From TrEMBL:
<protein>
    <recommendedName>
        <fullName>LAGLIDADG homing endonuclease</fullName>
    </recommendedName>
</protein>
Length: 116
């Protein structure tokens, strides 16, 4: 268990047993932890429209909204977006797993959002 989650849990237990004043303090700690949490970082959009399918990436539709994609690149994280087609269709990265060799090879579960 990470120290941040452990400390936040202890703060919740202490503060939830006290008055409304502490609830405001709890909200302060939630905002504080959100600012330092890696998951709170800004989402990026990665443009793959100039990449060649089956050369630079593989793309498999799982259903009408979900796709699995395997490609190369660094810095792609959950909640980021990927543009794939000339029509500028945008997909949100729901989950991503980087391979150990080569380190910049990854596979991801994407959700179709909309045209940009």
């Amino acid at each position: 268990m990470s120290n941040t989650i452990y400390i936040k849990g202890i703060l919740r237990m202490i503060m939830l047993s006290n008055s409304e004043r502490q609830v405001a303090e709890l909200d302060f700690f939630d905002r504080l932890f959100a600012q330092v949490s890696p998951s709170a970082s800004k989402c990026k959009t990665h443009n793959f429209t100039k990449q060649i399918k089956s050369v630079n990436y593989e793309f498999e539709e799982l259903d009408t909204r979900r796709v699995q994609m395997t490609g190369y690149g660094k810095g792609i994280n959950p909640r980021d977006f990927i543009l794939l087609t000339e029509e500028r269709i945008r997909y949100r990265v729901e989950a991503i797993d980087y391979y150990s060799d080569p380190a910049n090879l990854w596979t991801a579960l994407l959700f179709r959002c909309s045209a940009e």
